[in-house]
Amino acid sequence: MSSRRSRSRQQTSSASRITEDQINDLVSKLQTLLPEAHIRSGDRVSAARVLQETCNYIRNLHREVDDLSERLSELLSTTDMSSAQAAIIRSLLM
Amino acid sequence: MDVRIAEMAKDRKRRRESEESEIRRSQSHWRTEREQKLYSSKLLEALRRVRGAESPATTRSRAVREAADRALAVAARGRTRWSRAILSSRAILLKARTRRPSNPDRVKRTGPAGPVFQKARVLGRLVPGCRSLSFSKLLEEASDYIAALEMQVRTMSVLTEMLAAPAPS
After folding, report:
1. In this structure, is residue A85 part of a structural domain?
2. Binding-face residues of A in 21-50 toward B, CB within 8 A
3. Does this model's pTM top 0.80?
4. Is the pLDDT of residue B68 over 90?
5. Which residue from A12, A18, A72, B79 puts its CA 20 to 30 A from B50's CA?
6. Cβ contact A73–B68 (<8 Å)
7. What ipTM was predicted for this assembly?
């Protein structure tokens, strides 16, 4: 019982203090997901910069989804869904 | 009987561990054609329901966005926090969301200081349900969220093209 308690205390103390190396490691992994136009992986980019670009990228993606949603809602009202749907479903199954 | 129960427990543990490791390399699963096709068909079903409901243009566009987000969250199969947050929240894009009460005493409510953690907090506000996550968990969720969003954009673009110019039947 007492050993379990002391073990969990150890775990929380080590988990709450993240090292700079761990930060850089995680951030560099995140960097690989960003579109190359923003950050060339050859350059030394700060972690803060990568996080900023990540935020920008997510906001851009949200905006794209918003625009597509608007376009889709327009199309939904004008399209004859049944024939278009048949075409889509056919292509989805192929 | 005991052997079977023990085996079931082992299976569950194995499945959970493989799911956890799958989250770590989850970006790849959002890129498969299978995932995109699955999402397309789910999205199409949801869009038919949106179309059925009569509504003005602005709310219909928001209804499409919410349907798309909900379908995306379902596609995540409960493995990520952002997807569970989307499914449990009723109105994701409620613009009139009430602001959190201000902090008159300026007591520091946030975690570690510094520009990196400051940006991380901004990121935490962008990924659904991830405001109070640890740094490493947040980045893990953000990575999966980005891959999912990219698939969402790809799929909705294809769907838009197809609906705009349907193939002759």
Report:
1. yes
2. 22-23, 26-27, 29-30, 33, 47-48
3. no
4. yes
5. B79
6. no
7. 0.77
